[in-house]
Specification:
Elements (H helix, E strand, L loop, with lengths): L1 H10 L1 H10 L11 H10 L4 H15 L4 H6 L2 H6 L4 H16 L11 H8 L7 H10 L12 H11 L4 H8 L6 H15 L7
Helix pairs in contact: 1-2, 3-4, 3-7, 8-9, 10-12
């Protein structure tokens, strides 16, 4: 972690300023596995607080959130917890995939690209969900989630760079530590808005 920060503050004046400003950064972490992927599906396009409240209702209903309990749960029961029809489909599709062919435990020994290629096949799991899972659960060191509005807006603000292509080009300077760069950008985004960390 410290090695990544030192690399970034040497390479980029913006990160040097952020380091001087904050000193340390919040590093999010979540356990690898089915539950975290379910939570990330619930977090798509809604606030973290809203997704958390929905997940707690599901957990209270099911007792334990597993592929089996999600599949056995009726659509109406999930709806009563605040899960949309679309996200109900996504959760059940993920649960079925884990039961049938998706080996989440094998991800620890696979590359980020291999993990992405497996997860992207599952309906309801896009690049943002995969990026966050890779960063938070698998600790992949070189992920830049340009589908995340907080990251995009912070890059626009700090670098005056406005297209995804320019942002991707800019992020090449941060390799192989783009995950830490993302955490530093998120930290700044939250601090400026007086908001709590994502996890």
């Amino acid at each position: 972690m410290q090695e990544a920060i030192l690399f970034l503050i040497e390479k980029d004046a913006v990160f040097k300023t952020l380091h001087q400003q904050y000193g340390s950064f919040f590093i999010p972490s979540r356990p690898a596995g089915f539950v975290t992927l379910c939570k990330l599906i619930l977090e798509q396009q809604v606030s973290i607080d809203s997704a958390k409240a929905t997940y707690l209702k599901i957990e209270n209903l099911l007792g334990e959130v597993t592929p089996e309990t999600i599949i056995q749960c009726s659509d109406e029961e999930l709806k009563s917890c605040g899960v949309s029809r679309q996200k109900t489909l996504y959760l059940k599709t993920l649960a079925k995939a884990v039961q049938e062919e998706l080996d989440l435990d094998s991800f620890v020994s696979k590359s980020s690209d291999e993990v992405r290629n497996e997860l992207i096949k599952i309906k309801g799991i896009g690049h943002w969900t995969i990026d966050v899972y890779l960063m938070f659960a698998l600790e992949s060191p070189d992920i830049i989630p340009l589908g995340d509005i907080a990251v995009v807006n912070t890059i626009k603000e700090l670098y005056d760079v406005h297209t995804k292509e320019e942002m991707e080009q800019l992020s090449q300077n941060w390799k192989p530590y783009r995950t830490m760069a993302t955490f530093m950008l998120w930290h700044h985004y939250l601090e400026k808005r007086n908001r709590k960390p994502f996890v």
